Amino acid sequence: MTADEQLRRYRESIDNIDAALVFMLAERFKITQAVGAYKAEHGLPPADPGREDQQIARLRRLAIEARLDPEFSEKFLRFVIDEVIRHHARMQQG
Fold first, then answer.
1. What's the whole-number mean pLDDT along residues 9-16?
2. What residue stretches are annotated with the Chorismate mutase domain (predicted)?
3. What one-character DSSP code corresponds to residue 44?
4. What's the CATH superfamily of 3-93?
5. Is the pLDDT of residue 94 over 90?
6. Are 83 and 73 in contact (CB under 8 A)?
7. CA–CA separation, 57 vs 64, rounded Å?
């Protein structure tokens, strides 16, 4: 196998993983949209700092187990959580 063929195979795998990540994020956001609607309907706040802290701690532990930088995983999750909260706040505004 040539270096170019190996690089192509690596890139195909990366492309497949990226596609899976996008679909997983789409599924996650479908569920968080339902949570946002539920919160708005029941007058619950858009953010739940206790839950967020638990999730971040949990994913940091998982990252360590997976040999992924826990700082990176926390930044990634924080970005996702902030986006979800923004959506939830918008839903409550009408």
1. 97
2. 1-92
3. -
4. Chorismate mutase (1.20.59.10)
5. no
6. no
7. 11
Of all helices (H) and strands (E), which one includes residue 82? helix 70-93
Of the pLDDT bands very low, low, confident and very high (cuts 50, 70, 90), residue 17 is very high
Strand, coil or helix: what is 47?
coil
Question: What is the sign of the dihedral through the CA atoms of 49, 55, 61 and 67?
Answer: negative
User: The tokens 């497949």 sit on which residue?
Assistant: 16
Question: What is the C-alpha separation between 43 and 71, in angstroms, rounded?
Answer: 33
On whether the CB atoms of residues 84 and 29 are closer than 8 A, the answer is: yes
3-class SS of residue 18: helix
Domain ranges of the chain: 3-93
